[in-house]
Amino acid sequence: xxxxxxxxxxxxxxxxxxxxxxxxxxxxxxxxxxxxxxxxxxxxxxxxxxxxxxxxxxxxxxxxxxxxxxxxxxxxxxxxxxxxxxxxxxxxxxxxxxxxxxxxxxxxxxxxxxxxxxxxxxxxxxxxxxxxxxxxxxxxxxxxxxxxxxxxxxxxxxxxxxxxxxxxxxxxxxxxxxxxxxxxxxxxxxxxxxxxxxxxxxxxxxxxxxxxxxxxxxxxx
Length: 221
Prior knowledge:
By secondary structure, this protein is of the alpha/beta class. The chain has nine helices and eight strands. An eight-stranded parallel beta sheet has the order 7-6-5-4-3-2-1-8.
């Protein structure tokens, strides 16, 4: 199957209110352009340098999502154009994104990463850390970022019940967040969970944004 066929097949299974991020990391620009020609406008990358090279080379109506773990010293390279930063897991990183957004006269949308998996390798905040961060004065001072939702990655396991439990937990944290007092830099509307292997279950559990790579572009070498 071609990238176009894969993409059409996947978009036909995703409800209209769910956003598809095509995870294009390590893939050549020719592959991204095929997806672009098929109508895809949101791409997710996990390395800032690679994403910047692609941004410079590709049409400017594309939204670029940073989905990898972000190092603070690299934020400045994407602050001019990045549309959404997925994996934000500390106040320190938020402050740096805010600083670089200010320099570019922008407000940058971010998702806070919540730790839901039973794995040591995953990053993220727990529920207490999330609440502490959002209620801190330091957070309220940040005028050039906007928290538009949460993201999380389930444990890498075949056990559907466990994955479902983790997605449901994240949905419940998200629902609590929506009830919180809004301010200018907190407008939660996105719940990003679900990847190639588990996106349908994630959507059933309330995901509004899925990140799909190998099912569109094929496996990575």
